[in-house]
Structure formats: C-alpha cells, structure tokens
C-alpha cells in the first residue's frame, strides 16, 4: 500500500473539515452538547481506514488515474471519492458505537466505548438517575448523529459529480450497504439467542450468512463498489470488484473472528477472549461444535456467552477450540477465500496501479494482528 498513508491523510482531513462545520452547529445550540462534539471527534480520529482505502482503489481501478501524493488535496476530480471514503468511515464509527451498546462492550481500540464515556460523565457530574441508562441512551443518540452525518458527507461529495447516473448508482450502493449491515447485525444477535432451537447442521451456514451481511459486504465489497460506481464502472468492472471484494471480505471477517478469541489485548484494544464472553456464534464456534465430542460441545455451549468468564476459563475454551482443529480450518478458509479474490484480481479489467494496491490491501486485511 505505497500510497496508503497519504490517502488516509486526505480522508482524515476531509472528516476533520466536515466535523468542524457540523460540530459548530452543536456548539451554537448549547454548550451542554460539547460531549457530542468531543466524543464524535474521538471516535473518528483513529482506525486503519480500510473501508476508505477500498473505496478509493475501487475508484482508481476504474478511473485509472494512479495517485500523486504531491497533488494538492488529491485534485478536485477526487473530491467525490475522497468524500465517499470519508462517509464510509463516519458510517463505520456510527456502527461501532451502536455495536458496543449491543455487545455491552467496555472498550473500543483500547479506550472506553461511547456508552461508557457517557456513563462516566454522568457519574462524575453527580446527575440524577442511573449512569448506565444515561450512558446507553446518549451513545445511541451519538451513533444516530454520526449515521446522519455520513449521509450528509456522501451527498456533499456526490453533488458536484458531473455523471449524475454514477452519483445515483453510488448513493444506491451506499443505501443497500446500510440495509445489509443492519440486517446482518440483527442476524448476529439472533444467532446468539436462537441457536438453541436450530439444528447443529445449520449453524455453519447461518454463521456464514452473518459474515457475509454484517461484515464482508460492508467492509470490502460495498466500499469497492461505491468507489467504482463513482468512476462510472462498466458492468464487467463492477462484477470484478464484487468478485474480488466478497471473498476477501469473508476472509477479513474470519481473521477478525480469530482475533476476537485469540487476539493480544495490547494490539486489539479489547480483552482477550472477548467474543467468548459475548457469546458470538461465529464460524469458528460453528466449526468447533462440529468437531468436538458431545461432552466438550455441551461445556462450550454452557460457558459461551458468560460475561463473568475468568482468565482460566477463557484459556481452557481457547485450547479446546484450537485442539479440535477449528482454528486450522479457519486458516484454510481464509487462504481459500484470499486465493479466490486474488484470482479475480489477476484477470480484472482494472488499472495496473489499482491491482497492485488492492493486492497489497488483501494481504494487509487478512494477515493483521489487530
């Protein structure tokens, strides 16, 4: 990703400029809204910006412009795609705020999650009522605010695009992505509760469905498609972007599932084994259940989702899942999906620069440790 750092800088600058305009509205309403200003900036200040990078190189795959890091602001012709990439990051921040509420997560990227920040604000201020209730309600509103801002940012970027058909196609792709990830999130929380009445044979298929709609499309396929449509992609180009993006997105989430169970806290910013305490019914768990003896499977089912799991219990579950071969199978699935994506990329009607950058991104998102 030779140009990744400069692209991230452009996207970050676009987000900062947009937030400066929007948060000034909040400050004009009341100084009491300062936490919404501060926390929105906090949740948009970091991250790897993978969605933004996929969006940009989806655009370049079609536009074939390459990247000049010395060109001021990336050029006016890049304003629509840089804005769309920034909008994806704002949408992602909104999704994370809501996701942490749903999962009752205490941390995000090694710092308190949004609802915990608001909860702490309530406790420190000595206000009436429940700090937890205030924190949860305020974080929902922060997520809603960020969600609305992502729409505004996208529309600002698409408004000057000369190709109005491309603008409409990009907006339609964004809307579809938003519906799919919301549906995928619902399917995720459904699986955490409905698995008890589903047959064992269905659990892998149902877990894969969650991967596709909650993560794979939203993290990789849709950003690529949004960038490509802004550049006026042909049907063949858009098909290639999707053909590359979906298997890569699946591999991306499979790696995330492994990190959710085995990740280093100092690198992931979340407690080791957090997915075990949250009861995530991932592909890793589905495969482990297929491989475990009945007694071990019952113990896994009994402990999975217990928020009070201690370090010893987490370590025991980690060993149980690994020893049955589930981790090795997930690694094979990651490799197979990366191979599928790479095969599509090799034959795709894309610019040479974009193929190289997308190939580097494929390695980065599937070999990461955080």
Automatic annotation (TrEMBL):
GO molecular function: metal ion binding; prenyltransferase activity
Alphabetical GO biological process terms: isoprenoid biosynthetic process
Cofactors named for this entry: Mg(2+)
Keywords annotated in UniProt: Magnesium, Metal-binding, Transferase
Pfam families to which the protein is assigned, alphabetical: polyprenyl_synt
Keyword Nucleotide-binding: no
UniProt cross-references to SUPFAM superfamilies, sorted A to Z: Terpenoid synthases (SSF48576)
InterPro entries xrefs: Isoprenoid_synthase_dom_sf, Polyprenyl_synt, Polyprenyl_synt_CS
Entry similarity comment: Belongs to the FPP/GGPP synthase family.
Protein name: Geranylgeranyl diphosphate synthase type I
